[in-house]
Structures are given as structure tokens and as C-alpha cells.
Inverse folding.
């Protein structure tokens, strides 16, 4: 497919001379834009081989659903025979002997992987500054020329898609790690219902919150990719089959013109703290109405407890999940050690960055004897309250809507003096992961050179198809959705 095509293989005017030529063009672009540091591992030989196989299938008239599609893959999806690092020194030389379920589904559909993209180490960050391989740069430039972060932790994938370094990309979302970087970079980020995309082969941060998803240029592209990656997997006990007969892309035409009732939480709107955010609220409401939808207020009384609830649960699960990285079986191992205790402590100190070590310690403390019920137990009860409030809201409205992030992309070093400020970047995204709901971020750019922002639509579980249709209707109605100023 051509450099600027959007999965449209039906139009001869958009069909490239070959999939291999398209892949070569992307690698040229990646080299030209290497300063963005979107990729940490390139897969040129494998990509060109798979592109040639796609060309052969196309010549024979038997193409696969995604034949020749050049994709970026976040570097926490295990890829057989290709290093998978999760942005960490501790896995810098780890080469899986198996393929993750999601990436295998894409390969089976004919997709071509250009490479593995940069990320905050183990998904712990909101800016892709906390990677062992250095920060990724947002392709969008602030009006004063200052370079900004791409968001995180799927910042490498978002920067690759926004910077035309891939046709689309795969990422993961624990507390907004797909949607927030998509908003910062001016692209679409879709997190499906928890369980629709298998987590097998996805390096875990917080197992009850992690979900694979996609970053694309258009909503239609997100639907097409989700049709491939949303499938039941017997290797994942949390995997769920799509319960409807019609797939995601097919449902777009059926439901795009359908009017929906969209709810806005009173608490979130009341606590808007900046002119930038208030302007986004007004634009999103006007956009929803222009697309034919009704906008009403809904009540989520406990929504403000989402952030502390999320961080307690996420850090406790991270403490458990990351205990496996001990220098014994795989990954980095410290040298000059005296005993097993020093092996563990020195390996983990050298292998994990300060942010990861901090989160592990906080999670371990919250799980310790005497504090488990006070912290983790109460957080799980709060999670149930938040879930029930979402269910009550969805009894009144089809979807809910609020900003993806409290600001546009910020400069590098934003959290150097105040880590709490960075954690607050997740305030609008984490409630979705606590409830397992699907959510999509669509970009809003005013066209005058300012940085993009994102508006988020959230639906009840298994409403993914109609959620995508509602998002596409808003995308179609928006004259100020893209283009954004790019490097």
C-alpha cells in the first residue's frame, strides 16, 4: 500500500506498485526521522521477506485481510526470534521463542512488522521519557518551536503513526497508555473491552488492567485491525469471544448514522482547571451535537477516587508480576555477586529504572502484612463502587464522553520536580481500565498550528462496535480534526 494510504486496497489509485516498495519507503522515512526515536528495533529483513510473500499472494489473487500492511509493534509484545525489551535494561537481550497471540493474529492476516517501538519501561510512565533506550519525540511541534513528549507508555507507536513511520500500530493500555499518546500525537487510540484481545505474550504490568489495542490515523482503520486481533485464546484465562455476529468494520456502516445519547460526568466538567481544557469541552460537545447525538449530564459520584484506586491496584499487581525478573532464568544478571540475595537485589537495582523500582516498592508495601486490607482491599472495594456507578450511568446513556488528557503534550522534563503532576495526567483515562470498558480517543486539532488534544468516548462492555461507529460519526463531522502541524 502507498505511503499515505489508509488500508484502502480497493482503489487502484491508492494501490502501490508492490508491498515491498511500500515497506522500503517506510524504512526510508524511518531513517530520515530517526531523531524521533520511535523505534528501538527494526525488522528490515523479515519485513521485506513478508512483503514479498504478500506481493506473491496479491499476484495470485488470494490476498489476506491485511496483506502488506506495514505496522509498528510496541516492544512489550513478544515476537518470536526478535528481541522484546519492554523498554528495560533487564530485558535488553531477551529474545522470545514464541509469538504473542495478538501479533500472531496480525501475521496470519498478512501484516508486515516494521519494528518494535519505544515505550516507558514496563509501561510505567505517561511520556515515553522513562525508557532504557532514551525518550521518543512527538512529531508535532509547539507553536514556539519547543519539542514535546509523545505521551506514554505507547509513545513510540503513537509517534510512528503520527510521523508517517507506519500505517498503523499496536500498543497496550493499562491506565491510558494507548489513548493518551494518541491524543498527544493527534491520532486515534482504541482500547477494546477488557478480555477481547488476548494478553498471552504481552509482558504484564498490571494483569487485571492491561489490554492490547490499536493506534491508527482513522477510526475505520482501528475497526479493521480490531477485527483481526479480537479473538478468543485458550492460553489466556481472561480471554473473551466477541459475542455478536457482525464484526467491527462491518458495523460502522450499520451504526454510523445512528443517533446516540452521550453523557458528560458533572464532576469532571466542574473541575476543569484551564482555558485549554474548557475549550476542549466546548468543542467536543459541539462536535457530538454536529454528528447528530444528544448530550446530557450524568452522575459518577466516586469518579474522583479512580486515580488512587487505580494506582494502588496497578502497583500491587506490578510488584507481583515483576518479581519474576530476578537474574536467574532470563534477562539481565548482575556480576560480582556473593550470594543469592545479592544476585536478586543487585540484578533488580541495575535492571530496573528508578520509576519502576519506586512502583515495585510501593506495591510491595501495600501488599505487606498489616497493610493489605487497608490499601489493596479497600482499593478493590472502591473499584466495585466505580464499576457499579458506570453501569448505572450506562442505563441512562449509550456512551460517556470526556477529555483524554488534562492538557496537550508537555515539554520534556515536565515531571522532574513533581512526580504527582505526571500521575495526574492519567486522571481521565484510568476509570476506563478499572471498569473494563472500551474507550476510544479521537484527535481534535484546530488547524492553526496548535498542538492536538483528544476527546474520549467510553462505552459499556461489549459495545465496541457501536462505540467505533459513534467515534467515526464525530470524526466525519469534525472540520478541525487533523491536520496537525508535524515535524
Amino acid at each position: 500500500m502507498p505511503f499515505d494510504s489508509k488500508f484502502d486496497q480497493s482503489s487502484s489509485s491508492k494501490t502501490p506498485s508492490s508491498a515491498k516498495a511500500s515497506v522500503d519507503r517506510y524504512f526510508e522515512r524511518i531513517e530520515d526521522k530517526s531523531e524521533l526515536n520511535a523505534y528501538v528495533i527494526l525488522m528490515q529483513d523479515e519485513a521485506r521477506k513478508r512483503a514479498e510473500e504478500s506481493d506473491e499472494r496479491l499476484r495470485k489473487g488470494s490476498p489476506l485481510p491485511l496483506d502488506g500492511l506495514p505496522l509498528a509493534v510496541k516492544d512489550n509484545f513478544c515476537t518470536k526470534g526478535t528481541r522484546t525489551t519492554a523498554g528495560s535494561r533487564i530485558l535488553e537481550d531477551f529474545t522470545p521463542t514464541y509469538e504473542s497471540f495478538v501479533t500472531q493474529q496480525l501475521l496470519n492476516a498478512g501484516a508486515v512488522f516494521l519494528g518494535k517501538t519505544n515505550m516507558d519501561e514496563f509501561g510505567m510512565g505517561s511520556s515515553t521519557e522513562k525508557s532504557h533506550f532514551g525518550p521518543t519525540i512527538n512529531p508535532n511541534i509547539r507553536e514556539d518551536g519547543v519539542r514535546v513528549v509523545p505521551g506514554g507508555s505507547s509513545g513510540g507507536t503513537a509517534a510512528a503513526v503520527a510521523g508517517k513511520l507506519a500505517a498503523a500500530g499496536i500498543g497496550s493500555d493499562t491506565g491510558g497508555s494507548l489513548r493518551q499518546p494518541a491524543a498527544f500525537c493527534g491520532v486515534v487510540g482504541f482500547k477494546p473491552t477488557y478480555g477481547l484481545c488476548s494478553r498471552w505474550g504481552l509482558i504484564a504490568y498490571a494483569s487485571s488492567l492491561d489490554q492490547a489495542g490499536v493506534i491508527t490515523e482513522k477510526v475505520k482503520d482501528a475497526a479493521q485491525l480490531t477485527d483481526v486481533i479480537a479473538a478468543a485464546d485458550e492460553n489466556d484465562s481472561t480471554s473473551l469471544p466477541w459475542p455478536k455476529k457482525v464484526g467491527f468494520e462491518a458495523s460502522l456502516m450499520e451504526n454510523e448514522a445512528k443517533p446516540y445519547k452521550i453523557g458528560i460526568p458533572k464532576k469532571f466538567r466542574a473541575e476543569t482547571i484551564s482555558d485549554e481544557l474548557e475549550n476542549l469541552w466546548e468543542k467536543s460537545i459541539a462536535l457530538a451535537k454536529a454528528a447528530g447525538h444528544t448530550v446530557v449530564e450524568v452522575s459518577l459520584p466516586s469518579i474522583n477516587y479512580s486515580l488512587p484506586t487505580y494506582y494502588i491496584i496497578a502497583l500491587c499487581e506490578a510488584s507481583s508480576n515483576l518479581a519474576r525478573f530476578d537474574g536467574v532464568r532470563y534477562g539481565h544478571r548482575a556480576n560480582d555477586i556473593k550470594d543469592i540475595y545479592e544476585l536478586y537485589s543487585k540484578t533488580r537495582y541495575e535492571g530496573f529504572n528508578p520509576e519502576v523500582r519506586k512502583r515495585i516498592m510501593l506495591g510491595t508495601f501495600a501488599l505487606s502484612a498489616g497493610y493489605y486490607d487497608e490499601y489493596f482491599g479497600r482499593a478493590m472495594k472502591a473499584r466495585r463502587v466505580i464499576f457499579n456507578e458506570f453501569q448505572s450511568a450506562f442505563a441512562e446513556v449509550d456512551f460517556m464522553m470526556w477529555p483524554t488528557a488534562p492538557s496537550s503534550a508537555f515539554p520534556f522534563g515536565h515531571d522532574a520536580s513533581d512526580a504527582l503532576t505526571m500521575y495526574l495526567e492519567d486522571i481521565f483515562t484510568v476509570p476506563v481500565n478499572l471498569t473494563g470498558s472500551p474507550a476510544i480517543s479521537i484527535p481534535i486539532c484546530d488547524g492553526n498550528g496548535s498542538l492536538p488534544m483528544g476527546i474520549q468516548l467510553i462505552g459499556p462492555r461489549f459495545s465496541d462496535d457501536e462505540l467505533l461507529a459513534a467515534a467515526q460519526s464525530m470524526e466525519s463531522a469534525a472540520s478541525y480534526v487533523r491536520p496537525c502541524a508535524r515535524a
The CA atoms of residues 399 and 475 lie 16 Å apart. Residues 1-15 have pLDDT under 50 and may be disordered. The two ends are 23 Å apart (CA to CA).
